């Protein structure tokens, strides 16, 4: 089967032709460059209207095909700009009707993932999708591409673009900032915001603009911008590796064009003994072949036709049932012999300490980030972790004993907790999981009553000793008395349930909330969730 895909979610018009043996037969595109400001949705729509037909002709001549050879037409239903989506949907409808072939609308974000897999050979990667409109960490679990981390506000590409426009450098900002950044090694400090598996870029944007206006040289701001934002992206990706145990990382989306980001991610992957993949440049940004490829994969008569061809500007990656993957994957990361776990932040080694079985948690240097930022993050986090572990214990919440702390080598020696992770027992029908979840909720409430924010409440960071939770890994924790922070803390846990046990996530998380026993927090969580970019 041969599919012609039409892309046009934002300012790029793309036509791609792919066959069901995985051959990309043509990829043709054109991009609107606004003279001033950003992209106006109506201008994007008009640009598509003018370019779709000539680009289809280009794609046919590139592939040596005629329209009669096309068996299927696909187009991006969303996410994207409404007027732009409506234009390409209209074009796709008329083409499919004229050719009398089926029509299928697909999810653009999944297009980025699938073209990445097709062009690199990655099979089941953790995907870092970085573009102008999206920043997501995506992993396939149980029939869907799950968003296991994402930006809480603006996308990385949008952040670079807005900065560039604001200081008069033009659009798109990514390549311009990259060019300036390469002129220097100097950096200034910008806010580094990672919350569990999520990120936030709006604070960096405001701070970078303000520092530039106060006289920090442009090259230095651009370099700092890249070093800070990209280190955050690497960190959430490495958290996702350690969380999913996957052994492949795929980078995609327009920002993947950035050489510094690619080098940093490659370095991070090497440090974690996992394989790094990225598609050839022309398949990183928006293109028609990614839409054609998903058209072929998702093709099912029930999904075709005009009646299914409505657009959805807020279409989420995780809304799509992934019917074309029908098996689970096995992963194998080969760790050195002495290491029992390679966490996102630290190497975990078992050792004896004063005759006690213990765990050495060493925050190793991360070569992907610059020395200044690396030293700061590791020092702050080890001190903060030790303090929070002790304060949680004072609040009657079980945590490991700290036997020793070495601030030079960034090592914590901790009591070894010989209990399973919540991950490992969540599906065990022989235990009373409700009681455990209730206790976890009650303990999180105790932490919050004492102004302790764990910062990374995932199912892997809660061990379970019979029915008593033991909390580990306070490395992203902090002190706060803001309801916002309590809500975000719980939301990290909710997302973790959604990743590990998607079908039961709501039900199980509600038991946590019952244990937490504070009605006000439910409203706060809803409010934070609704602020999410697509809800
Ligand atoms: C919904 C859809 O329309 C949207 N598409 C999109 O954002 O276009 P894409 O081609 O994937 O990415 C464009 C972004 O990629 C950034 N970019 C391009 N080259 C770059 C570079 N060398 N360094 C950093 N960013 C770069 C641009 O600044 C811009 O923000 C998306 O995928 O979110
Ligand atoms: N005190 C402990 N007792 C038993 N096991 C532990 C202890 N501390 C850590 N571990 C094990 O090591 C793993 C990683 O530890 P931790 O979460 O503290 O490090 P991290 O680098 O932040 O890792 P992650 O990215 O997985 O959160 C834990 O998931 C757990 O299996
Ligand atoms: Fe895109």
TrEMBL record:
Location of the region described as Kae1 in the Swiss-Prot/TrEMBL record: 1-324
SUPFAM superfamilies tied to this protein: Actin-like ATPase domain (SSF53067), Protein kinase-like (PK-like) (SSF56112)
GO-annotated molecular function: ATP binding; iron ion binding; metalloendopeptidase activity; protein serine/threonine kinase activity; protein serine/threonine/tyrosine kinase activity; tRNA N(6)-L-threonylcarbamoyladenine synthase activity; zinc ion binding
Sites where the protein binds ATP: 340-348, 361
Full protein name: Probable bifunctional tRNA threonylcarbamoyladenosine biosynthesis protein
Catalysed transformations (reactions): L-threonylcarbamoyladenylate + adenosine(37) in tRNA = N(6)-L-threonylcarbamoyladenosine(37) in tRNA + AMP + H(+); L-seryl-[protein] + ATP = O-phospho-L-seryl-[protein] + ADP + H(+); L-threonyl-[protein] + ATP = O-phospho-L-threonyl-[protein] + ADP + H(+)
Domain of life of the organism encoding this protein: Archaea
Cofactor notes: Binds 1 Fe(2+) ion per subunit.
Keyword Protease belongs to the record: no
């Amino acid at each position: 089967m041969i599919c012609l895909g039409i892309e046009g979610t934002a300012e790029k018009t793309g036509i791609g032709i792919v066959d069901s043996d995985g051959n990309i037969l043509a990829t043709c595109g054109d991009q609107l460059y606004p003279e001033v400001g950003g992209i106006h949705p109506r201008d994007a729509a008009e640009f598509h209207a003018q370019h779709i037909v000539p680009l289809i002709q280009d794609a046919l001549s590139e592939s040596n095909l005629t329209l009669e050879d096309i068996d299927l037409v696909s187009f991006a239903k969303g996410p994207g700009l409404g007027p732009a989506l409506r234009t390409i949907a209209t074009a796709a409808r008329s083409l499919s009707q004229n050719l009398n072939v089926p029509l299928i609308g697909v999810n653009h974000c999944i297009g980025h993932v699938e073209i990445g897999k097709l062009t690199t050979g990655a099979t089941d990667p953790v995907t870092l999708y970085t573009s102008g409109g999206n920043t997501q960490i995506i992993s396939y679990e149980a029939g869907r591409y799950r968003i296991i981390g994402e930006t809480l506000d603006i996308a990385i590409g949008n952040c670079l673009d807005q900065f560039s426009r604001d200081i008069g450098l033009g659009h798109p900002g990514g390549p311009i900032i990259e060019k300036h950044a390469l002129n220097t090694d100097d950096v200034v400090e910008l806010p580094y915001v990672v919350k569990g598996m999520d990120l936030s870029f709006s604070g960096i944007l405001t701070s970078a603009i303000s520092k530039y206006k106060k006289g920090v040289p442009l090259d230095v701001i651009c370099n700092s911008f890249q070093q800070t934002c990209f280190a955050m992206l690497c960190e959430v990706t490495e958290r996702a590796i350690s969380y999913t145990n996957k052994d492949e990382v795929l980078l995609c989306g327009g920002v993947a064009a950035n050489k510094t980001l690619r080098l940093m991610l490659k370095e991070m992957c090497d440090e974690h003994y996992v394989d790094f993949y990225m598609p050839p440049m022309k398949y990183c940004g928006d293109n028609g072949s990614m839409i054609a490829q998903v058209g072929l994969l998702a093709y099912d008569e029930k999904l075709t036709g005009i009646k299914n061809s409505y657009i959805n500007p807020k279409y989420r990656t995780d809304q799509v049932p992934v019917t074309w993957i029908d098996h689970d994957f096995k992963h194998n990361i080969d760790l050195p012999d002495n290491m029992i776990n390679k966490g996102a932040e630290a190497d975990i080694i078992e050792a004896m300490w004063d005759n006690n079985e213990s765990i050495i948690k060493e925050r190793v240097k991360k070569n992907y980030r610059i020395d200044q930022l690396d030293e700061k993050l590791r020092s702050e986090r080890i001190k903060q972790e030790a303090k929070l572990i002790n304060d949680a214990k004072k609040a009657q919440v079980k945590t490991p004993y700290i036997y020793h702390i070495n601030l030079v080598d960034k090592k914590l020696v901790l009591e070894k907790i010989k209990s399973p992770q919540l991950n490992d027992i969540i599906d065990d029908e022989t235990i009373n999981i409700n009681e455990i979840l209730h206790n976890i909720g009650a303990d999180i409430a105790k932490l919050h009553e004492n102004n302790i924010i764990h910062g990374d409440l995932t199912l892997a960071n809660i061990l379970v000793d019979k029915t008593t939770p033991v909390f580990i890994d306070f490395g992203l924790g902090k002190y706060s008395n803001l309801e916002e922070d309590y809500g975000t803390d719980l939301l990290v846990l909710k997302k973790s349930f959604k990743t590990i046990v998607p079908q039961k996530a709501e039900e199980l998380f509600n038991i946590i909330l019952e244990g937490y026993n504070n009605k006000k927090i439910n409203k706060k969580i809803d409010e934070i969730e609704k602020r999410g970019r697509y809800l």
